[in-house]
Write a structure and sequence with these properties.
With 84 residues, this protein is mainly alpha-helical. The protein has one domain. The protein is built from three helices and no strands. Helix 1 crosses helix 2. The protein is elongated.
């Protein structure tokens, strides 16, 4: 089931989204739906990483802040690369 959602955009935002949709040769609503799906997948992946990190923190080795940041950036880059 699909539902209709109304969002407020500036004229510039709407124009830019229309241009990007045209480049992909899709309707604006399809393009925005694809963006939403992509963002939701990224959010799911990020939450999974957090859950994994919490599980490791409870049972596995611990790392200092700099190491955590380094590993998080590496993992996020891997996820983004895989999506590209």
């Amino acid at each position: 089931m699909t539902v209709h959602v109304t969002i407020e955009l500036t004229e510039d935002q709407k124009t830019r989204l229309e241009q990007l949709a045209a480049q992909e040769d899709v309707d604006l609503s399809v393009y925005i739906r694809q963006l939403a799906e992509q963002r939701l997948r990224e959010d799911d992946q990020w939450r999974m990483l957090i859950e994994e990190g919490l599980a490791v923190a409870e049972t596995g080795p611990s790392f200092d802040h700099q190491e955590v940041v380094r590993r998080s950036r590496m993992r996020r880059a891997e996820l983004l690369k895989g999506r590209g």
